[in-house]
């Protein structure tokens, strides 16, 4: 990553003006702040990336690049941080955005799916039943895929409602998944093997992200 971007991590304030001369894929990853509060929190906080205008634009562009030419009808984002990238991607594509929520927040008829999140907690997510019609082509976006449990639950919800996805190949279940990072976990590998995916971590940095370094 660019040395000047790494300097941002040492600064007590966000530099929302600096953009490196060579904007290689993933340059904006250095804007993410590391965990300083202990194991009950995620190991990185992308909030500073989202505050940086060029960083956010380049992140969304990298996520959408593999899907150029795909006929996408709607973008769906996962509660809660997936709402940020998902809504930004929908705006770029000029498509609608569907929020997949944690259970208990929607006042309309919903379809529910239980799952285990990255921390091992049992949860339930919901989606309204009237938002996805049969054959609608959907790109699913989240901030991070660690164990894959949350993303697989969202996939199940969309498939149960009849949505389809930009296909990886004709012989596998069609789907499109985008996240800043898809870790090389058992669940992350399963998703990448079965569905067309996009993420922002360059190959030479993937081992460090897998180890949360």
Automatic annotation (TrEMBL):
Lineage top rank: taxon: Eukaryota
EC number annotated for this UniProt entry: 2.4.2.7
UniProt GO BP: purine ribonucleoside salvage
Pathway assigned to this chain's UniProt record: Purine metabolism; AMP biosynthesis via salvage pathway; AMP from adenine: step 1/1
Keywords: Cytoplasm, Glycosyltransferase, Purine salvage, Transferase
Domain Phosphoribosyltransferase, residue spans: 69-162
InterPro entries referenced in this protein's UniProt entry, alphabetically: Adenine_PRTase (IPR050120), PRTase-like (IPR029057), PRTase_dom (IPR000836)
Major localization class: cytoplasm
Keyword Coiled coil: no
Family: Belongs to the purine/pyrimidine phosphoribosyltransferase family.
Stated name of the protein: adenine phosphoribosyltransferase
Source organism of the structure: Herpetotheres cachinnans
């Amino acid at each position: 990553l660019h040395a000047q971007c790494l300097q941002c991590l040492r600064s007590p304030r966000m530099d929302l003006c600096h953009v490196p001369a060579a904007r290689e894929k993933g340059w904006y990853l250095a804007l993410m702040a590391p965990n300083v509060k202990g194991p009950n929190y995620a190991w990185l906080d992308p909030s500073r990336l989202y505050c940086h205008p060029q960083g956010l634009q380049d992140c969304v562009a990298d996520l959408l690049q593999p899907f150029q030419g795909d006929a996408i009808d709607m973008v769906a984002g996962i509660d809660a941080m997936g709402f940020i990238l998902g809504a930004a991607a929908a705006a770029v594509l000029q498509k609608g955005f569907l929020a997949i929520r944690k259970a208990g927040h929607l006042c309309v008829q919903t379809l529910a799916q239980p799952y285990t999140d990255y921390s091992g907690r049992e949860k339930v997510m919901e989606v309204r039943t009237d938002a996805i019609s049969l054959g609608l082509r959907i790109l699913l976006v989240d901030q991070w895929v660690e164990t894959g449990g949350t993303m697989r639950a969202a996939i199940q919800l969309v498939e149960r409602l009849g949505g389809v996805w930009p296909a990886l190949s004709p012989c596998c279940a069609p789907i499109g998944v985008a996240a800043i990072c898809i870790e090389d976990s058992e669940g992350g590998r399963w998703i990448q093997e079965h569905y067309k995916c996009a993420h922002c971590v360059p190959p030479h940095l993937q081992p460090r992200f897998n180890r949360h370094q």
